Amino acid sequence: MKNVGPEAPADATYDVIVIGAGPIGQNVAARARAGGLSVAVVERELVGGECSYWACVPSKAMLRPVVAVAEARRLDGAREAVSGSVDAPGVFRRRDRYVSDWDDSGQAQALGDMGAHLVRGHGRVDGPRRVSVATPDETIVLLAAVHAVVVCTGSRAAVPDMPGIAEARVWTNRTATDTSSVPARLAIIGGGPVGVEMATAWQGLGSAVTLIAREARVLPQFEEFAGDLVGASLKDAGVDVRHNTTVTSMRRPSPSGPVTLLLDDHTEVEADEVLVAVGRVPLTGDIGLNTIGLTPGSWLDVDDTCRVRGVEGGWLYAAGDVNHRALLTHQGKYQARIVGNAIAAQAAGRALDTSLWGRHAASADIHALPQVVFSDPEVATVGLSAEQARRDGRKIRVVDVDMSSAVMGARLYADDYQGQARMVLDSATDRVLGMTFVGSGVTELLHSATVAVAGQVPVSRLWHAVPPFPTISEVWLRLLETLQAGEQE
C-alpha cells in the first residue's frame, strides 16, 4: 500500500497491523516495512509509549543528576565544589526536555517517515486478522491484516487490593516520573528495580524516603551481594529501609493530608505520598482477546518467534511486556525485530530459522538477558545467576572479585569505591553463563558481558581480550586471574 502520510485512511487492509506504538510496536513496524510490507500502527495514548514518557527515559533523566552529585561527593577535590543540594526544579526541567513535554508529534512523524500509517484510538482484535479502532472522534475504523496482527500493548503497574488504598490515591511509576513537586515524605512499597531507582531519585531530590521491602534484601531477584550493596548505599543516603515487611492497610482521612500505612509488625509509617512498585500486569483486558478464544487480561503465551499459541492460523503475535518473557524495553525491541523479520520472511514464502540463536528465535530472552538497575551503585547483569544455574541442574564455577580493592580503574573512578563482580561459568564447557557487576559506572561494562554470554565465548579466548588500563573494565582480567589462581590451588 502506498504511504499517504502518518495518519491512516479509514477502513483499510494492510499486510501487518500493530496494536501499540511504543518502542516495541515501532520496531515491529520498521522491520516489517524493511521487508516490503504495508503496516498500520494503532495507538490509544502517546506514540512512544510507557518507556518514552513514564518509565525508562524520564526515570533515568531524573536519576542521573542525583547520582552525578553523589559521585562528585565521593571524590577528593570534587566534593569541595558541591556546595548545595540537587536542584529539583532543574531536574524536572531536564526530564521534561527528554520526554518532549509529553508531545509525541516527533515520534508520530517518524512512523510516517518509515511508511507506516498511524491510527489514533483504542484498538481491539475483532476476530481473525481484524482490528477495530475506537478513534478520539468516536468513530470506528475497521482494519484487516493480510499476514499478521501484533499485540504490543505493554503492561501497567500492579496495584494490590488493600484496605484504604483507593482513598490513599497512591502513586505508580507514572506519577513518580511525571510529578513536579517533591513530597516531604515518600513511602515506597516494593524493593525491586522500580522501588530502588525511585528511592534513589526522590531521596536525592529532597524527600525523606521509607522503602518497604517484603524480602530480606532489596533486589531479591539478583545475586545476593547486589541487594546487600545497594541496600547499604540506600541507608547511607538516608533512606529508611524496612526489610521483611508488608503493608496491610492505609488511611488518608483528608484528601490533602498525610497517609498512614499500617505494617504487618503492627508499626505505622506516615507519609505525604505513597508509591506502589510491586510488579506489572498486562494491558490485555480490553483488546478483544475474547473474540478469538483467549482470556482478557492475561499474559499472552508465545513461542520463540513470539507467535501467540492457541490461535488458529498463526496470525497473532505478541512482543514486549505483554508476553511476559522479559519486561524490559531493550528486550522487547529485540523481540520486535525477530517478529518483524519472521512475518516478512513468511510473507515472502521463506522458511524460518528458529534454531538456537537463529534469525527468527528470541534465544536471548532465555540465555542472554541483560538488565540494569540505575541505582547508586549501579547493578548490571546478564545471563544466569549462580542460583539460577544450579536450579537448572548445571555444574558451575563461580568467580568473585571485590572491585573495591582489586581494580585500579575502579579506585580512580571513585574514592572509597564499593563494588563487586561475579562470573558464572559452565564447568563442562568453560563458557560464561552469567555475569553480574555492582558499582559506579558498571552499566557500560554490560554489553561486553552480553557479547561473552550470547557468543558463548570460552575462557581461553577471554584471556586474549585485553582490557585497557586503568579502566573499570580491568575487572575482566581480575576475574580470569582469580579463576586461574583457584585452578592452581
Structure description:
NAD(+) binds at residues 190-197, 279. By secondary structure, the protein is of the alpha/beta class. The protein is 32% helix and 22% strand. The chain contains 17 helices and 21 strands. Strands 1, 2, 3, 4, 5, 6 and 16 form a 7-stranded mixed β-sheet that branches. A 5-stranded antiparallel β-sheet has the order 17-18-21-20-19, sandwiched between helices. Strands 10-9-8-14 form a 4-stranded parallel β-sheet. Helix 1 (23-34) packs parallel to helix 10, helix 3 packs antiparallel against helix 4 (88-98) and helix 3 (56-72) crosses helix 8 (193-205). The radius of gyration is 24 Å and the shape is globular.
